[in-house]
Amino acid sequence: MKNYEDLNGMELDTIREIGSIGTGNAATALSSMLGCEVRIDMPEVRIMGYNEAIDWIGGPEVITAGVLVHMSGELNGIMLSVQQMEFVNLVLERMMGRTVQDYEQLDELDRSALVEVGNIMISTFINALSSLAEITTHLTVPAFAVDMQGAILTVPMAEFGGQSDYIMTIGANFICNGKAVPCRLLLSPDIRSLNFLLKKLGVLDE
Amino acid sequence: MNDKLVVGIADMKMARQNGMLITYALGSCIGICLYDPLIQLAALVHIMLPLNMETGRKSPLKYADTGICETLRQMELQGGARSRIVAKIAGGARMFETPGGGNLGNIGQRNIESTHMVLRREGIRLLREDVGGTTARTLLFDAASGQACIRSYGKPELIF
Lengths: 206, 160
Prior knowledge:
The structure holds two protein chains of two kinds. By secondary structure, chain A is an alpha+beta fold. Chain A has one domain: CheC-like (Chemotaxis protein chec, 3-Layer(aba) Sandwich), CATH 3.40.1550.10. Chain A is 46% helix and 27% strand. Chain A contains six helices and ten strands; from the N terminus they run αββαββααββαββββα. In chain A, β3 and β4 form a beta hairpin. The longest helix of chain A has 26 residues, at 9-34. Chain B is an alpha+beta fold. Chain B is 18% helix and 34% strand. Chain B has helices spanning 64-77, 107-121; strands at residues 4-6, 11-16, 20-26, 30-36, 41-47, 86-91, 125-131, 137-142, 148-151, 158-159. In chain B, β4 and β5 (41-47) form a beta hairpin.
């Protein structure tokens, strides 16, 4: 069983490719929801220690919104869409015709729009991944929270904390109408599922 | 103040007589403040999971049981006495309401229970706690007074 930090270049490239396909599909879904062109730049895969991951996302105390979905079936894990202010306003502007300065200004309808956008992006990502690897994955109903991003990020960490000291994130930036908006889609498979997935794709070097 | 000692996840720091310890954004994790008032020795440990079941035990501070024991051991090396050490804890929230989402939502609760159990077993008196709920907490702990302070999103500061 390979842990995150043991992955070799070939395996990381495969995960990057998964990220590219998944994010590409998510971008297409986002594009049709928002009615504007959405492109992605080079996807990146990062394997980080806990405290490093929190620095990477922009500090622990910044308030952010998170949409979280559990995966089960042949692939177990968590997928998280971290929606920072720029992204929230991109969605709200296109869908609701308004923007907010603060998360406290989000009303019920705004929140529901954000959950739906997060859910559709996550589902599209997982669907693309599942058909690529020919596996079946079930997703739970999305959960939504607005709080410190450090605490939101510890949810996938705590879930797999007994297995690893690292967390893996896959993501790319969205470029929407010429403006780059960071897409924080975090795929956190458990170690067993990660190995299964790499094996299924024929790249696991045992 | 910019002389705060930042305690990361699965991390522990100590301060004596003066200095402020801080740990950010406790979700389901728990921040445990341990204090020996006589010699003003303060320790803050940020644990993530209830029980250490790792074979290698590389990171004892990640778990409530080994985290508390390791912290107590280090406090004793600094002259702390177990009979005087008292505790204050915060955290153990449930960040996402996940319907049927495995045991994820319970990690906070399990952390609280494990922390209580370990403190009782080690004979450490729990003075105050602010645990559970659904909001993240940032915990500050002042070595001079032994006072702790909690910051949350959309709530007034809580001093205890």
